[in-house]
Amino acid sequence: MPNRIDVTVIGAGPAGLAAAISASRNGASVLLVEREARLGGILKQCIHDGFGVLRYREKLSGPEYAYRDIVELETTNARVMLQTYVSRIEKIGSKFILTLISSNGLIQVESGSIVLATGCRERTAKQVAIHGTRPAGVFTAGTAQYYTNILGQMPTKRCIILGSGDIGLIMARRLTLEGAEVLGVYEAKSEPGGLLRNVLQCLNDFEIPLRLEHTVTRLFGTDRLKAVEICRVDKNMTPIPGTEKLVKCDALILSVGLVPENELAEMLGAELNNKTLGPVCDQNNMTTVSGVFTCGNSTHVNDLVEFVSESGVIAGSNAARYNYRAARSLVPISSSADFLYVVPQCIDVGSQENEATIYFRSSEVRKNVTVSVLADGQEVFKQHYNHLRPPEMERIEVYFGGEFQRMSKVTLRMEDTVISEEEPEEEDAQSVETVGAQEDLGYVDDSEHMEYDDDFADVGDYGDIDDTEDIR
Description:
By secondary structure, the chain is α/β, with parallel strands linked by helices. About 20% of the residues lie in helices and about 35% in strands. It has helices at about 15-25, 55, 60-75, 140-150, 165-175, 195-205, 265, 305-320, 430-440; strands spanning about 5-10, 30-35, 80, 85-90, 95-100, 105-115, 120, 130, 140, 160, 180-185, 210, 215-220, 225-230, 245-250, 250-255, 260, 290-295, 330-335, 340-345, 345-350, 355-360, 365-375, 380-390, 395-400, 410-415, 455-460.
């Protein structure tokens, strides 16, 4: 006979910890399943500060942030299973049967609802199609961070970082502090992919160049990476012939994007969103499969850990209150091409919850715009933004009012804001920080401005690379 539990949370990073605590506080019996030996997820290796500013009003390191949730979890009735893998989930009637594998063997658990808090994974060199050999010395930024912060081993002495996502920017600083020479951060797009504060604090403060509209097109080396080929790209991010340069280095650190872990969601038959690559969900964080909830980076990749924890609280509380007999009526949220994506993607008007926390990203850099939410054509929310950037996610809270259950259409709209000369634009904290950042960033976005020293050579001139015969 399978063990019976009300809520099973899969993944014990910040989202899973928050979900387990929330579900337990709402009266459910909870099982928290984690494949690693310790709780905390990726936060265990994020030893830099900056976590918890919104939630605790203080700067914490990743382990400190996770520790606070772990301490709170210990005050609940949640049962924790570490080094345990979920090999299969089946929905049978109104219940879910999970097959778990650990060092103690195989067990089955019957659960009333599921919370997916499985996080995300990094894209690899194969996914960005870099040509050349396959030597040692090519790491994802997360792997380089694990080597440096957990294992205490330096993965490089002289490296190139491809991609300007937040973890790549943070590792540029971290490796520099440990004595490595970071030759530059190369980004194929015309704008950095991380938060502006990380560009300022991690690159500018350490005089690490950011090369926009450039990418790595080829690797050289046999046993160990010897050099990479750098090439300028056009607006379609296609390499421009004749702009190739050779850079000698012993490591390439990849920060080329994150993808939600969605294998279990697919196994359960949950619909995936083609923009976030995570499960489609409603304002209660329930997926298209009733009883299956999603939260954190398994839903969409977040900027701030506080947003991850918040989604865990929402998913956990609703999983605890889940009633399989309750009918759902999903109304899709539509948005224009001005939005890169919107989460949640639908509103359950059959729910008792007529408020929604909505996250969105703009599809491009926009200044002085107004974002509004319309319910059946009636405006229920409006907010002005001085500056929007795709890497910086925005959060809004929308109250749909008394006609909530009759609602049939929800639309997000973005429009340019016209500011008269008599009414000067108000500068909020976000706009002040952004404007200041743009003035100080010093992007290198044109190859004419790039200064190459003896370590940068035209392709074909391999300098003193000692395995020239291996470069073809």
